[in-house]
Design brief:
single chain, 225 residues, 7 strands
């Protein structure tokens, strides 16, 4: 068996990204947000940002909900996929992250279509549900893992029939396959998948990935029309 290494994954991502994915100064700055906060690189990978962009365009999304803004990297990719008059609502619990994201979003030229909320998502999501706004076409969940089942429940309530939900970081280094793992994030992701398996309104798949961000994966769910 030919065991791939992180160096090889980086090289392959670098090759594809150099040919297929143009990243301007605004995206590059958002991708470096973690450096100022002395944190690990929390943003989606460059090619996954482009994947989100393409999913939104393929789906014809006009309204997008993002749970977990961080530095605004995925926010910019998604906002740039929207047509004129489109709207992206993004939620971030940490005020300093949201402030940094706002600067990157402004620099990217998409601030006019992005609505930022700062605070606990499980407090903000009910308010969105009660606002009378149109349902969302696409929801991207990239936030704390113990609460993913609750985020997904709100995504179902806030999305239109035929809507798409993408959940990031669902592999957790392979720990998701361990039913006895004690980490709350692992148990949250497992509860989320149990919900998916039992939810008749949803058809879904989860994909393992490797690349510059290491070994991870995401879930793609389609809400019945």
């Amino acid at each position: 068996m030919n065991l791939m290494t992180q160096e090889q994954w980086n090289a392959v991502d670098g090759y594809f990204n150099s040919l297929l994915i143009e990243e301007d100064d605004a995206l590059a700055a958002a991708a470096r947000a973690h450096i100022d906060f002395e944190l690990p690189d929390l943003a989606v990978a460059r090619n996954q940002g482009k994947l989100l962009h393409l999913l939104a365009r393929i789906h014809g999304a006009r309204r997008v909900l993002e749970i977990g803004t961080f530095g605004g990297y995925s926010t910019i990719w998604l906002a740039r996929a929207l047509p004129e008059g489109g709207r992206l609502v993004t939620i971030e619990w940490e005020a300093s992250f949201a402030e940094a994201a706002a600067a990157h979003i402004e620099r990217a030229g998409v601030a006019g279509m992005v609505e930022q909320h700062v605070g606990k998502a499980l407090d903000i999501l009910p308010a969105l549900a009660g606002s009378g706004a149109d349902p969302f076409d696409l929801v991207f969940i990239d936030a704390n893992k113990p609460d993913i089942p609750e985020y997904f429940s709100w995504a179902l309530k806030l999305s239109r029939p035929g809507g798409v939900v993408v959940v990031d970081n669902v592999v957790l280094g392979g720990a998701v396959a361990d039913p006895d793992h004690q980490d709350r994030g692992v148990q949250g992701v497992r509860r989320f998948h149990d919900m998916l398996a039992e939810e008749p309104r949803v058809t879904a798949t989860s994909i393992q990935t490797v690349g510059a961000k290491g070994y991870d994966g995401f879930t793609l769910a389609l809400i019945s029309s």
